Structure formats: C-alpha cells, structure tokens
Amino acid sequence: MTPRTKAVVSWSSGKDSALALHEVRRSGEVEVVGILTTITSEFGRVSMHGVREALLDQQAEALGLRCWKIPIPSPCPNEIYEREMARVLGEVQQLGVTAVVFGDLFLEDLRRYREAKLAEIGMRGIFPLWMRDTAILAREMIELGIRATLTCIDPKKLDRSFAGRSFDAALLGDLPADVDLCGENGEFHTFAWAGPMFSRPIPIVVGEVVERDGFVFADVLPAASAV
Fold it and tell me: What is the value of pTM for the model shown?
C-alpha cells in the first residue's frame, strides 16, 4: 500500500482553510498532522484575520490537530515572513511532512509564490479548492454546515457594516455584485467556528468593531469570556 502524504494545513482560521482541510481529510489520500498559522506577536492575533490566539487554540483542539504558530511583527517585511515560515516548515519536515495544504481559490500569483518557496525546501503545495466557482463554493460551504463570522473588512471594497456579520445566505444576498462571494480578492476575512471538520462548535460573541491600519476589524470573543 502506498503511504499517504503527510501534510500540514496553512490555517488562516477562516472558512476557506477549514474547507480545504475537510476536503483533503475526506479524500483519504493525505494524512494531516497539524495546522500552521501566522500570529502577529504585538497583538496576539491571527495575522490579517485579527482573531484572538485563544480562539485559534480552541479551533486546533476542536480539529484534533497540533498548531504550529509562526510569530511575525507588525508590519512584517517579507524577508522576516519567509525566514520564520521556512524555520517552522523545517520543524514539520522532521516529522515526515512533505506538503502544505492551502485554501487558495484563484489567485495565480499567490499560488506560484507558494509553490516556488516550497520547492526550495523540497516540499509541495496541495490546493483542493483551486479554480472552483466561488459563487457556487460559498453556497456549498453554508450547506455543508460551515459557520463563520466576518472578522476583517477592507472598507475600500466593502462597507464596514459587514464586519461581524455571519457568513450565511443572507450575507451572500447582500454583498455587492463586484465583491467575490468568498472574499478571495481580500474584501473580507472570516473566523470559522463550526462545521464538519470540528468535533464541536466554538461558542463566540461579536465584540467591538474598530478600524486599524486601513481595515475594519470585528473583535470575536470566546462566549464564556464575554460580559
């Protein structure tokens, strides 16, 4: 029997990486041994998504997977990002990991960049959602039971009132026609808190909405810690 490929998932904490994990697990061809996530050290939050580290820890527990955290500064020069990513990938290679799973949908330049950097250290990328129609995919996620909350909005592309909203059918109906329904052009980012990839839902509440560094963030809180 051919041994399964050992992989880690590039985990943003959002819906796309959650579905990518679910797809490779379902295929049976990949053994996922963990997730890896960049953390902005200054804030203790998932980079770009603005999700608290405590919620990332709850996700990892509900996924039943180890989480490798990659600390980066804010702002983060690309050379620091690449150095820290290579350091952590070197660690996971020691466990026999040869691939990284990504939730990328259609951004060609990003995929080429990822593949080139992985090739430098003898690894490869797996892209289970690649080039799937995002209008169809967004609805499939909801039908599958993925539940997510919009945590970061680019106000140049989407009104700030969308921050903190649920990723559901009502949201898809309200998004402007020029916004990708999965937010693949950076219009929004999410925190996935339920779905078939998790052993249990992660209870949350939406807290304060703030604007920082040109983006609008909804602070998602563990429900037990909200007052």
Answer: 0.94
* pLDDT tens digits, 11-24: 999 999 999 999 99
CA distances from 177 to 15, 43, 172, 220 (A): 21, 34, 10, 27
Cα separation, 112 vs 227, whole angstroms: 45
Distance CA 167, CA 194 (A): 11
Maximum alpha-carbon separation in the chain: 54
CA distance 218 to 227: 16
Q: Is residue 91 a contact partner of residue 77, using CB atoms and an 8 Å limit?
A: no
Inter-CA distances, 50 with 46, 107, 144, 191, 205, Å: 5, 22, 25, 9, 15
Token code pair at residue 215:
């983006």
CATH of domain 5-126: 3.40.50.620
Write down the domain spans for the chain.
5-126, 144-225
Mean pLDDT for the chain? 95
Determine phi and psi for 43, rounding to 5 degrees. -110, -15
Gap between the Cα atoms of 190 and 150, Å rounded: 4
Residue 115's contacts (CB-CB under 8 Å, 6 or more residues apart) are 124, 125
Q: Give the pLDDT band (50/70/90) at residue 75.
A: confident
